[in-house]
Every structure is written in C-alpha cells, then in structure tokens.
Amino acid sequence: MTSKPRRSQTWFGDFGTLGFTHRSWTKNQGYPDDMFEGRPVIGICNTWSDLTPCNAHLRVLAEYVKRGVYEAGGFPLEFPVMSLGEILMRPTTMLFRNLASMDVEETIRANPLDGVVLLTGCDKTTPSTVMGAASVNLPTLVVNGGPMLDGNYHGRAIGSGTDLWRISDEYRIGKITLDEYKEYESCMSRSDGHCSTMGTASTMAVMVEALGLTLPGAAAIPAADSRRRRLAWLSGRRIVGMVEEDLTLSKILTREAFENAIKLNAAVGGSSNFVIHMLAIAGRLGIPLTLDDFDALGSTLPLLVNLMPSGQYLMEEFFEAGGLPVVIEQLKSHLHMDVVTVNGKTHAENTAGAQSWNREVIRPITDPLKESAGLAVLRGNLAPDGAIIKPSAASPHLLNHTGRAVVFEDYDDYHARIDDPELDVTADDILVLKLVGPKGYPGMPEVGNFHLPKKLLEQGVQDMIRVSDGRMSGTAFGTVVLHVAPESAIGGPLALVQNGDMITLDIGNRRLHLDVSDEELTRRRAGWSPRLPHTERGYVKLYLDHVMGADKGADFDFLVGGSGSAPILKGNH
Description:
The chain is α/β, with parallel strands linked by helices. It has helices at residues 9-12, 17-26, 58-71, 97-110, 125-136, 162-172, 178-188, 200-211, 226-245, 249-252, 255-268, 273-285, 291-298, 315-320, 324-330, 347-351, 411-417, 454-458, 518-526, 538-546; strands at residues 41-46, 75-80, 115-120, 140-144, 151-153, 156-158, 376-380, 383-389, 400-408, 430-433, 465-468, 480-485, 502-506, 511-514.
C-alpha cells in the first residue's frame, strides 16, 4: 500500500473556505461526511449517449462499477465526456477523437479524482479515453461495454458490419428486395453492445486487455451477458486497490505492453485502425513506437482466431471458446508474459492453464487459421512515409499485382462516377481515392473499403485493389491499402496519380510503387495546388492546423507527451 497523499484531499481535506465549498455543495447529493474523510475518490468516465447506440447500456454498467467502489471503501463520482458514436456522427468520429481525449484529460485534471474507470465501447470511445487518461497518468482501469449477441437471418449467422457490405451490394444490384434489406437491419443488431465481429470496437477491447488495462477476459464478454455486469462490479473494487498501490497507467503501459498488444492484434485478426490508435496512445506516454514496429513485431505471427472479417465466427463464439486469455496462453512464447496488469498480476499468472473450448474458433498455434497474418506496412514512391494493408482480409490473388489506376479525386467524385456504366474500369484495375486523409476529408473517414463499380459487381467481381489515404472499418474486408502517407491533401505522391498510371502492390516485398518517373512527378507537382481549407473557425480549424499524419497516429502535435495530474491552478475562484 502507498502512503502517498490522496490527490482528492487537496479539495476535500481543506477546512478553509474552498474546502467548505467543495464538501457542502457535493453534499447536496446526499453524501455523508465520511465520504470526504480520505476515501479514494474514483471518477467513472462514462461515454454513454443515446447518440452512441453501442454505448447506450453504459449507464447500467456504471451502477455496477459504483457498487464495487463503495464495497472497497472508495467514493465513486460519475462524469460524462464527449461520446463518439460511429453510427450517427458526421463526417467521421475520427475527426473528434482528439477532442474527446482532451475532454477526458482536462476533466480528470480539473477534478478531485484519485483513480479513474473508463467506460467505453464504440470504436473511438476506447482510444480517446485511454489517450486522455494516459496524459494524466492516474491509476486507471477500463470497462468496455462488450459486443452484441450474434445476428441471425433465416438461420444463418450475420456479423454486424462485415455482412453490411455484402448486403448493401446485394441490394444495389437488385439481388434482394427492400423488405429483405430492412429485415436484415433488424436481425443484425439485436442486443446492447458494439459490433459482433472483430471490427474496430472489438479490436479496441482486445487492445486494452492485451495492454493490461482490463481485468482478465474482459474483451469478449457479450454486452447482454450477466458476466459483463459482474466484471464492472469487480472492476469497481479493483480500482480502489490500484489507488492504494499507486498503480498508475505508466507502470502498465510500457514498451513491452505495446509489443504484446501488436502481436496479439495479429493473432486475433484485428482492425487496421489499431495502428493509428496505438501510435497516438504511445505518443501521449512518450513511448517510442513507429509504424515499422507493427510490421516487424506482428506481420509474421499466425492468425489464431476464426472471426469475421478474416474468418467465420463472431465475438459470442470467441467468448465461449475462452476469449483472449486463451490466445495469450497460445502465444506466450512470443510475448512478454511478466508485464503487470491492472489486477496487479502478470499475463503469465492471469492466463495460466487457459484452453480453447472450441478449436474451430480459437486455433492452436500449431494449427493456425492463417500463417503470417498480421498487418503489413508498405513503402515506395507512392507512400514514402508508409501505408498499411491487412493481408488476412485480402484476396490472395491480388497480393502481388500490377494494375492501371482508376482515379477518384475526392469522395464526391467517387459517388458521382462509381456506378456510371460508362466508367472505364476492369477487375484488374486499381481504384485510387484521394483527399480522405486526416486533413483532406477532414478527419480520415472509414471509406478506404469503398464499394466496387456496380457494373463489375453485376459481373460477379467481389474484390479489387483499392488505395487511399483514408481508413477502413474494422468490420470490412478486401484488398485495401490504407493510411497512405504523406496524404494527398498536403501534396503527398497520392495527389499526383492520374488515370492510366500503373501501380504495383507487392505484399511480399512490402512495396507500393507508382510507375511514373521522378521527372514526370516533379512536373505534375509543379502544377498541383492544395484545396482551400474546409473552415476558418472552431474545432475543425484547430484540427487542420495541428493534426499530424497517419504515420504518427493523427494526434495533435501539441498533445504529444503528458500533462500530468496537477490542475492548471491550485484552487477554484
């Protein structure tokens, strides 16, 4: 146990005017005197919102966290922060991830909190809250909301997100009716929780468990399962212990923890969005982490988890098969098993003896679903600062391919022409989409897995190489090159690609090459000019002025490194 003075006592332990104010006004909620007499004050950071369907049940989980905090002798105080709902927010939640992280950081710093529980779920709510909390560096624990129950349509399992792309294409070409389309909608999302596939939300849940920020087994418990509420209760108990032990985020989020998470992301077939969020979190802690680390550490590891979009099953089956502890145990010879986690134990202690109860869902390392399935980092004259691809979700016949560029200058151009029967395109071409990077859109939307031309879908074409500076939904699949850096909006080579240029994608050699001479690119650059800024005011202006490239996590340059837990001023006046 630590003898370190409670941070909260600089608010509640003062018996002058300010202390009177802090205690008296807080007592209007019915709290007795002993709540203010040295108990650890635990902030419950809640990303609940009706506008974030994936997190709509977090109000319930917050009550279970409070039970655990009270039971362990703590004083829980719940607070809201900006909630990022992937489903409804426009133009993209990624535009607001850094803003939400600032909300979390400043709310924690400005209030009498000794420890924090982050209630998360939907894609950006997990990285944004962890980024903000990491900047402050208090004892912190994550409780994610959990995945939805499996969808089912006419006896067939459907995965939220992953089957969306297939269903939408079938409706576009008249293969299913509008009534069938609507019935799919109802069958896909049938309970509380985030996407049931290994999309970005599930990947973020795996990420925080792999980093050691959740209690063991937290990632896969379905939102509707009573064990999710039990987890919240136990997490409330544990955060009080973390405060007593002064087990801060920086003691858990070490370089070794990040290496573990990269390797485990490969083994579960996690989202490509994992890269950009991990880079941002590491930057807040000053941990050296680069784009190349993701290839060096994870690209040769096998895919062990048979979940959509890289496999067949859904998160409910992953949980019943044993969840992430089984994957950690299978991969232990590749991991730092001695890293500390939020329960004070190591991965080795937490996962000892874990075994798969369904070897079709979680495969043994001796019989993986796929070999060398981690994310690949590409470089070449089209991506000098790097690009990424998820080979496990790509088509094998396209992993070494040269094709003619069919270029869309922006997303509006894409929408205007993609279904034009006169579009000059074949299945062997490479589709290029510009101006969807951090500054270009703005916000770097999940449009990298854009739909194929309608006329090719009608011919039975199911995949083509697509190249952009945008992101891809973690639920999506296809041979999609993403995060091309530098982005086109700031004059990266992608901005100079023209229709008919030949592009080579060579995954084996990690190469993305534009077959255009340096002299011709110099000539094209001389004629290129950036578009006018999207706005000259407000948050978007701040974003455009300070967002870094995808290869640096698309965080703000002024947020790199932590602020610490000291409030800006000592008192409130």
